[in-house]
């Protein structure tokens, strides 16, 4: 770990192109349409396409060596296995036929939905036969596969939303049947409505009031997928966890119309306000963490609400507007976790140009200087989505005296985006740090 010190100096400027340069990027995207998969129409009737982009490095497991996005997704699915999120035989059953349909997100949807429904049927059969342990495990895997099926399907049509809803229902069945950990389905009051969440109870502690982490998602993660990022191991350390579908993610965007917002502290403070009402939570020991784009959410929440006592940015974000300018300028020929048009959907934008306008406020400079709580930033040395220089800029700007920058190297593993290729190593580092700080 590197405590309070600078690691790299990378003066290269982020994209600051002119309006003409931006318009030219749109033209480039249209010109390469024949090389890309089927496009998705925006509200304005334009067609934006998503290229198949090869990974830049070969030092991680890529089921589809020619496609970063699909390989990254499969790596994440496999990485959830230690917490019951996948089985390699089921993953291979879904993926093997897809080798003939590289980049075809319709084929992806059908393959993963079929596997999710197959495993869902196994769960129902086991539950009907009174085999609760088998049923719970199958419900959890079915949830994961169904949500991963829906992940790349935009716009979110009835087929997509039905698959997603089925996945959520599978998780609820898992929560009811599993012996541990104890999971409550809860609602966090928010903006005259609420945000859906799970409260996962702390274990191995005799304290009446326990420390707790608020765990937000990222650009394309959900509270169900977050659970499979090691939450069972976190609560074994005596720390409860409130996993929240925040604005722009999960059920909050799909079924409640809560779009992504730059002032994410509104959601963060709402979650904290909810937790302080619980008799089993110590209000003086609440932290916040989030993954991927959550590297913007969590630092912003901790900077704007001093009640948070610890913060983890699981992957850095510094200037998200600049990140998307670069992606659009490349015609989406960039390493990305979702199709490019995903950003217009979660922002409620009418076009990519409108999305860029809405992203103007997604910058952490001038915000994180206010942070005072303990802070941990993790980042992969080979992260293809967010460059290391952005992580360095974020770390240098954070105002906390107690701050740690943990870079995962190629040699040790976990060097890809959010430690996707070595999830247990990444979560162990983060959760051991939390056990010391909360």
Q: Which short descriptors sum up this protein?
A:
438 residues; Rossmann fold; de novo design (two linked rop proteins); 2 domains; nine-stranded mixed β-sheet; two-stranded antiparallel ribbon; 16 helices; 42% helix
What would a concise description of this structure say?
The chain has 438 residues and is α/β, with parallel strands linked by helices.
Structure in words:
With about 450 residues, the protein is an alpha/beta fold. The chain folds into 2 domains: about 1-35 and about 180-438, Rossmann fold (3-Layer(aba) Sandwich); about 65-180, acylaminoacyl peptidase (de novo design (two linked rop proteins), Up-down Bundle). About 40% of the residues lie in helices and about 15% in strands. The chain has 16 helices and 11 strands. The chain has helices at about 20-30, 70-80, 90-95, 105-130, 130-150, 160-175, 225, 230-235, 250-255, 265-275, 295-305, 320-330, 340-345, 350-360, 390-395, 425-435, and strands spanning about 1-5, 40, 45-50, 185-190, 195-200, 210-215, 240-245, 280-290, 310-315, 375-380, 405-410. The protein has a 9-stranded mixed beta sheet, sandwiched between helices. Strands 2-3 form a two-stranded antiparallel sheet. α11 links the parallel β8 (about 280-290) and β9. α3 (about 90-95) runs antiparallel to α4. The chain is globular. It starts with a strand and ends with a helix. Residues about 1-50 have low confidence and may be disordered.
Which geometry do the CA atoms define?
globular
Structural class: alpha/beta
Helix and strand string, N-terminal first? EHEEHHHHHEEEHHEHHEHEHHHEHEH
CATH homologous superfamily placement of the largest domain: Alpha/Beta hydrolase fold, catalytic domain
Biggest sheet: strand arrangement: 1-11-10-9-8-6-7-5-4
């Amino acid at each position: 770990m590197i405590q309070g010190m600078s690691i790299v100096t990378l003066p290269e400027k982020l994209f600051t192109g002119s309006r003409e340069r931006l318009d030219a990027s749109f033209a480039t995207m249209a010109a390469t349409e024949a090389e890309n998969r089927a496009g998705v129409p925006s509200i304005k009737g334009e067609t934006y396409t998503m290229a198949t982009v090869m990974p830049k490095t070969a030092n991680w497991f890529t089921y589809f060596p020619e496609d970063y996005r699909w390989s990254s997704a499969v790596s994440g699915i496999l990485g959830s296995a230690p917490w019951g999120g996948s089985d390699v035989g089921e993953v291979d059953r879904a993926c093997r036929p897809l080798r003939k349909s590289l980049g075809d997100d319709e084929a992806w949807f059908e393959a993963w939905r079929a596997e999710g429904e197959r495993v869902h049927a196994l769960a129902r059969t086991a539950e009907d036969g009174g085999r609760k342990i088998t049923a719970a495990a199958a419900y959890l895997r079915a949830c994961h596969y169904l949500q991963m099926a829906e992940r790349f399907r935009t716009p979110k049509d009835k087929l997509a939303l039905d698959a997603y809803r089925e996945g959520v229902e599978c998780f609820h069945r898992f929560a009811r049947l599993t012996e541990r950990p104890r999971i409550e389905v809860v609602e966090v009051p928010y903006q005259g409505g609420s945000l859906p969440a799970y409260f996962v109870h702390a274990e191995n502690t005799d304290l009446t009031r326990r420390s707790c982490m608020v765990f937000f998602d990222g650009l394309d993660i959900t509270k169900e997928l977050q659970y499979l990022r090691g939450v069972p191991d976190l609560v074994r350390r005596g720390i409860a966890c409130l996993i929240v579908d925040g604005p722009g993610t999960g059920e909050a965007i799909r079924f409640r119309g809560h779009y992504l917002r730059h002032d994410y502290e509104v959601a963060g403070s709402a979650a904290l306000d909810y937790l302080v009402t619980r008799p089993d939570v110590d209000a003086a020991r609440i932290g916040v963490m989030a993954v991927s784009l959550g590297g913007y959410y969590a630092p912003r929440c901790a900077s704007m609400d001093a009640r948070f006592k610890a913060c983890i940015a699981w992957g850095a974000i510094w200037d998200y507007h600049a990140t998307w300018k670069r992606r659009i300028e490349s015609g989406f020929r960039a390493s990305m976790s979702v199709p490019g048009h995903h950003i217009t959907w979660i922002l409620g934008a009418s076009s990519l140009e409108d999305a860029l306008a809405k992203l103007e406020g997604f910058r952490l400079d001038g915000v994180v200087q206010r942070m005072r709580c303990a802070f941990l930033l993790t980042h992969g040395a080979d992260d293809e989505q967010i460059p290391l220089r952005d992580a360095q800029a974020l770390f240098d700007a954070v105002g906390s005296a107690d701050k740690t920058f943990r870079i995962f190297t190629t040699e040790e593993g976990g060097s890809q985006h959010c430690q996707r290729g070595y999830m247990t190593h990444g979560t162990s580092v983060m959760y051991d740090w939390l056990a010391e700080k909360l």
